[in-house]
Structures are given as structure tokens and as C-alpha cells.
């Protein structure tokens, strides 16, 4: 890996394009190095993972809205949309939109946390849609996805967005554009322009994940993917981007991030170096914000030791800065204790999640968020007794570069009304690569089948899983196998939505 120093430059500074971060990203994307076997295998896992969480969300309102929007944009050759017959094709940017919302709706797919947050599986819908539309094969798709994961994760390691309240999808637009560039074998200059356009059009504030969180939380990554598709299309036609997009005097760093004096270090693969970043990411066993994964497992482990939960006086979760301020009581959001809050808000409330996991000993993507579940009197009482606290050691481990040290967990201090305290901690979720039950191919398939049950016919599940597991061998024109179709009865259960412009 080669580390690049990235900082804002004065308008009259000598700063050749060869030194722009967008050029460095484009160089990585244009380097068509072989994909290691273990990377290809992990990409297959994530294709399966995305399809499973999309199936479970298929008839939720935001997903239904996005699918109905895509349905108004049929196109040939086009790309497929989850749930609809593979023979039906749609304009690739709209297919990316619909599938991106389906994948993101339940907050249940893969994650990478470092200086910034990310769900790098959000790269899959736009890159796959373009691959289907352009008649690429499985090997091309694998190369494109390896780039998408690499660029997003490398940017997440080096550039913190949330410190300045910029949403994490600002790293997704450039990574998806770069991945599409790899997929299509584009030249460095074209990818450079596409990366710049994608970044410029996908920078937004973090209000989408603050306070009363709405359905836009699911739409935001899909929007970034859609913008990446359109950016690449424009760049291929010869259109340019604001430049230098990160380092310009009025660029992202100077005006949206650390300012003229800030300096960032972004490490990217050197020439001929394999793109392996996906191996550092991890998926979720539970449908909740990633920093609540280990606390859910901790709550399940502690409930028998605690016994009568009605005897709890207080629970303090000692955790990292990010966890405390984003999904904990340090956020200052009263909505995180509101039993009438949206599912999206509850998904980002660690006090709520810990309370329900303690009471139920399990976590479910629908039942755990049901309105009557959130409003149970005993749950509300317990929920309001739970707070979070930043602890420097957890913050240090959150940012540790050594994978064996890096942790996203918490220490729970449970004080009973008798004065007795019960203490336990968990550094990483059970499903984490270093956890008690790390996910492998079997676990990805089991998760898919669990989420697809009652949505995708068993024979169609088998067909999809067989196709996904031979992705590297799919021939040009065969990538339409990487979708699933459901019955009209299943789609008929989708809610009514209002008419729009289309």
C-alpha cells in the first residue's frame, strides 16, 4: 500500500493532476490486477448477503417505492430488479436505485468502521446493474466489485466525514464510480472525471442519521450509487468534473471537512498490488447498526446472570466515542428514548436495542422493531434506565490498526436495586471474524435462507445460490442470474404508495 498525503491547495498553487487524489483512485481502478481467490470468495458471500437482506425488505414501503419508480424506466439491454422477473429489464441507474434501497432498508448487510463508517456492500447494486446492462461476465464483475470495496474502505480508513457532519455516502459515490470504471476497463482520465463528479454530487449532511431518522437513511446510499452510474456515463461522453475535487481551494476538504490546514493520509494499493480490502470488512448477524452487534450478543449472554430484569436500577454501557455519540445517549437525541420513534431511529438507539435484547434473548429484523414491542411498558421502563458513556480504552480500540486489537463492543455495568453490580464486556460480535461464531459461507447461506423464507420460493433460492457461487465463471450476458424472482402473491403484499411524477 502506498500512502498519499491529501490536503487543500490554494487556487494558484502548483498542483499537477497526477498528484490529485482522484487520479490516484483512478490509477488503482484502471490497474486490472488479478483478484485473489479469497477475495473472489468473499465477494460471493456478499452477493448472497445482499440478496438475503433485500428479500427480507422486499415489501417494505421504501423498497416498494423505489421498485415502482424503477418499473417506470424499462430499458434494453438494461438490468434486473430484485423480486421482478429476470426477463424484465430496467435502465441501469434505476435498477441500481431500486436494488440499493432493498439492500440498505434493514441495515443488515456488511460494514467497515475506521476513521469513518461504511457499508461497502452498497457498491454491489450499481456495479452489478452496469455489468448486466453492458453484457459483462462474472470475472469482470468480480474485478469491479473488488475495486469498489477497496476504494471505499481505503477512503474510510483515511478521511473522517462524520466529524464535520458529512454523511458517509460521500465515500460511496467515488468508490462505485471507480468500481464501474474497473468493470468497463476505462482509462485513467475517464475514471478521474467520473470519481470527481460522483463525489461532488453525493456530499450531504449527516442529518439523515440524526434525530428523527426517516426512510431517507435507506435511500441515501442508493442515491449515491445512482449518481455514480450517471457520473460514469457523462465522463464516458467526454464531460468533466470539478477539480481538484478533494484538494481544491473550494473543494471538499477546504469547505466541508477539516479546512485549509487539514491533512489526511490515504493509503491505496500500488501498481500491480491486489485489491484485498473486502477481507477487512464484516457482515451483521443482527438487523441493527453495526456498533450494536456486540452489545446484542453481550445482552444475550448476561440475561441469565441478571435474572429478574425488574430489579435493574441502572445500566451503563461503557463504549467508544463513536458508539456513545452516534447511537448512544451522548447523541443528545430524545428520539432515542421515544417509544413512538421510527424503525430507523430505533435501529440507531443502543439503549433500546440493549433493553430488547436483554428481555428477549434474541434479535429479529421485524419483531424487535414492531410498534407494540417498542411501546411495552416494561421495555420502556428498562430502556430509560440504560445510558452510554465514552471510555478512552474503547475509543482507542475502535481506531486500532491491529485487527486483533480493533473492537466495536462495550462493557456493561448493571446495578441492581439491591446495590449489587453485574459486569461483563464483549469486544467484537460473535459473527465477527475474530468472534465466537465467525461467519463463513455456510453462515451466509443460512442467513440468506432464513431471510428468504416465505419470500422466495425454495427452488428459486436454490437456483440463485447455485448461480452466485459460480459468479466467477458466469459468461458475458449471464449476470441476470444474480437476481431473484418472487411470486405475484408476495409482491401483492406490498403497501400502496402514492403516485409520483412518473
UniProtKB/TrEMBL annotation:
Gene3D superfamilies: 2-methylcitrate dehydratase PrpD (1.10.4100.10). InterPro entries: MmgE/PrpD_sf, MmgE/PrpD_sf_1, MmgE/PrpD_sf_2, MmgE_PrpD, MmgE_PrpD_C, MmgE_PrpD_N. GO terms for molecular function: 2-methylcitrate dehydratase activity. This is 2-methylcitrate dehydratase. Residues 19-265 form the MmgE/PrpD N-terminal domain. The keyword Lyase applies. It comes from Nocardia uniformis. Keywords: Lyase. It catalyses: (2S,3S)-2-methylcitrate = 2-methyl-cis-aconitate + H2O. The keyword Ribosomal protein does not apply. Belongs to the PrpD family. PANTHER family: 2-METHYLCITRATE DEHYDRATASE, 2-METHYLCITRATE DEHYDRATASE-RELATED. Monomer. Its EC number is 4.2.1.79. Residues 286-469 form the MmgE/PrpD C-terminal domain. Signal peptide: none annotated.
Amino acid at each position: 500500500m502506498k500512502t498519499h498525503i491529501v490536503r487543500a491547495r490554494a487556487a494558484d498553487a502548483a498542483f499537477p493532476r497526477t498528484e490529485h487524489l482522484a487520479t490516484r483512485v483512478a490509477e488503482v481502478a484502471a490497474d486490472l490486477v488479478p483478484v485473489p481467490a479469497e477475495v473472489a470468495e468473499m465477494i460471493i458471500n456478499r452477493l448472497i448477503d445482499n440478496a438475503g437482506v433485500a428479500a427480507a425488505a422486499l415489501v417494505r414501503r421504501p423498497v416498494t417505492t423505489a421498485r415502482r419508480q424503477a418499473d417506470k424506466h424499462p430499458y434494453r439491454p438494461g438490468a434486473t430488479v430484485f423480486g421482478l422477473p429476470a426477463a424484465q429489464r430496467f435502465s441501469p441507474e434505476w435498477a441500481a436505485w431500486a436494488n440499493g434501497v432493498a439492500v440498505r432498508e434493514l441495515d443488515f448487510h456488511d460494514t467497515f468502521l475506521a476513521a469513518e463508517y461504511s457499508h461497502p456492500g452498497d457498491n454491489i447494486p450499481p456495479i452489478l446493474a452496469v455489468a448486466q446492462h453492458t453484457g459483462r461476465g462474472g470475472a469482470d464483475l468480480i474485478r469491479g466489485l473488488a475495486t469498489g470495496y477497496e476504494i471505499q474502505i481505503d477512503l474510510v480508513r483515511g478521511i473522517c466525514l462524520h466529524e464535520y457532519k458529512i454523511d458517509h455516502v460521500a465515500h460511496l459515490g467515488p468508490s462505485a464510480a471507480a468500481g464501474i470504471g474497473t468493470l468497463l476497463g476505462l482509462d485513467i482520465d475517464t475514471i478521474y472525471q467520473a470519481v470527481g463528479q460522483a463525489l461532488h454530487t453525493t456530499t450531504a449532511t449527516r442529518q439523515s442519521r440524526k434525530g428523527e431518522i426517516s426512510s431517507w437513511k435507506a435511500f441515501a446510499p442508493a442515491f449515491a450509487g445512482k449518481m455514480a452510474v450517471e457520473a460514469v456515463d457523462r465522463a464516458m461522453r467526454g464531460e468533466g468534473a470539478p477539480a481538484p475535487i478533494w484538494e481544491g481551494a473550494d473543494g471538499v476538504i477546504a469547505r466541508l471537512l477539516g479546512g485549509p490546514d487539514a491533512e489526511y493520509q490515504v493509503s491505496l494499493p500500488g501498481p500491480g498490488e491486489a485489491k484485498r480490502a473486502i477481507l477487512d470488512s464484516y457482515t451483521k448477524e443482527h438487523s441493527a447498526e453495526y456498533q450494536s452487534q456486540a452489545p446484542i450478543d453481550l445482552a444475550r449472554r448476561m440475561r441469565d446472570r441478571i435474572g429478574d430484569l425488574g430489579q435493574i436500577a441502572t445500566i451503563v454501557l461503557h463504549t467508544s466515542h463513536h458508539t456513545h455519540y452516534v447511537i448512544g445517549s451522548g447523541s443528545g437525541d430524545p428520539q432515542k428514548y421515544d417509544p413512538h420513534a421510527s424503525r430507523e431511529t430505533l435501529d440507531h438507539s443502543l439503549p433500546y436495542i440493549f433493553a430488547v435484547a436483554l428481555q428477549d434473548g434474541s434479535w429479529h429484523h421485524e419483531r424487535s422493531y414492531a410498534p407494540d414491542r417498542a411501546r411495552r411498558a416494561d421495555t420502556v421502563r428498562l430502556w430509560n434506565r440504560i445510558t452510554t458513556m465514552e471510555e478512552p480504552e474503547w475509543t482507542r480500540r475502535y481506531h486500532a490498526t491491529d485487527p486483533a486489537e480493533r473492537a466495536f463492543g462495550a462493557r456493561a455495568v448493571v446495578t441492581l436495586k439491591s446495590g449489587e453490580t453485574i459486569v461483563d464486556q464483549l469486544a467484537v460480535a460473535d459473527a465477527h471474524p475474530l468472534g465466537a461464531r465467525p461467519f463463513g459461507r455456510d453462515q451466509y447461506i443460512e442467513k440468506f435462507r432464513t431471510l428468504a423464507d416465505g419470500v422466495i420460493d425454495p427452488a428459486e433460492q436454490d437456483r440463485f445460490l447455485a448461480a452466485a457461487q459460480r459468479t466467477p465463471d458466469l459468461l458475458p450476458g449471464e449476470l441476470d442470474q444474480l437476481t431473484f424472482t418472487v411470486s405475484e402473491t408476495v409482491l401483492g403484499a406490498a403497501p400502496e404508495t402514492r403516485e409520483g411524477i412518473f
